[in-house]
Amino acid sequence: MHGPSPEMLYPLAGYPRAVFLKNFITRPNIEVGDYSYYDDPEGAERFEDRNVLHHFDFYGDRLIIGRFVAIASGTRFIMNGANHAMSGLSTYPFNIFGNGWEKGFDPKSWTDHSRGDTVIGNDVWIGMNSTIMPGVTIGDGAIVAANSTVVSDIPPYAIFGGNPAKVIRMRFDDATIERLCEIAWWHWPAERITRALDAIRSDDIDALEAFAEKKS
Questions:
Q1: pTM of the full predicted structure?
Q2: What does the buried/exposed string (b/e) look like for 11-36 if buried means 16 or more CB atoms within 10 Å of the residue's CB?
Q3: For 149-164, what is each residue's pLDDT tens digit?
Q4: Which DSSP string do the residues of 156-205 spell out, in sequence order?
Q5: Is there a catalytic annotation at residue 84?
Q6: pLDDT confidence tier of residue 117, bands split at 50, 70 and 90
Q7: Which one of 1, 53, 141, 152 has the largest count of C-beta atoms within 10 Å of its C-beta?
Q8: What pLDDT is attached to residue 34?
Q9: Is the alpha carbon torsion for 106, 107, 108, 114 positive or negative?
């Protein structure tokens, strides 16, 4: 056996609060990689509606979540639709209420200020009740501490925390991070990951790199 099928809805037997997230995604502007899971006792299946906020098609921004991402309960992704136009004298969104207030509104006053896609790398761990703001990129292997508000990009293998969140420390030295990003074990097929699990779970980068060089 080579781990659970990424097509499983509930990968933990007897624990329905955790789901392989990609199997519950219906929106074309959300992408989730294999084995990434969301854990929520109040219904992880409703992630799209409850945890991805202000995500409107006309903005064109995407939420992209890589493989092997662990997302704890209460995590929220705030998308670009939460932003108000700031080019005028008022930031009040008159147009959304209609009844004549929509006349003369130029959608570009919103979309031209989009911060782009929100991208979560591979093997990322996001702690409980974290808030990810629009347009940030979280690098591979990063950890976001619980109750953090992420307003800027997180480099690979950084531990980020606080409000606003900042780097607390790096998980490894620069040379090791470079090697880990090059190995990119999360892109391997499940069979290969299974064979390499001892190396992946260890703190021995040489062992993992040696396995990667076998390419089998």
A1: 0.92
A2: beeeeeebbbbbeebeeebbbbbbbb
A3: 999 999 999 999 999 9
A4: TTEEEEETTEEEEEESS-HHHHHHHHHH-GGGS-HHHHHHTHHHHHSS-H
A5: yes
A6: very high
A7: 141
A8: 97
A9: positive
Enter the tokens of residue 20. 């392989």
Residue matched to tokens 């396995």: 211
Starting from the edge strand earliest in sequence, which strands make up the sheet with 131-132, in order?
52-53, 76-78, 131-132, 149-150
pLDDT in tens, 191-214: 999 999 999 999 999 999 988 887
Q: Of the candidates 134, 133, 83, 135, which has an alpha carbon nearest to the alpha carbon of residue 109? A: 83
Residue 198 burial by Cβ neighbours in a 10 Å radius (0-12, 13-18, 19+): exposed
Q: Which of 2, 54, 55, 84 is catalytic?
A: 84
Fill in the DSSP letter of residue 88: S
Instruction: Quote the DSSP letter at residue 154.
Output: B
Distances (CA, A) of 205 to 122, 153, 201, 210: 17, 25, 10, 8
- Tens of pLDDT along 69-80? 999 999 999 999
Helices 174-183 and 205-214 cross at an angle (nearest 10°) of 30
Tokens of 38: 């969301």
The residues spanned by each domain of the chain are 18-86+113-171, 172-216
Whether domain 18-86+113-171 has CATH 2.160.10.10: the reply is yes
Largest CA distance in the chain: 67
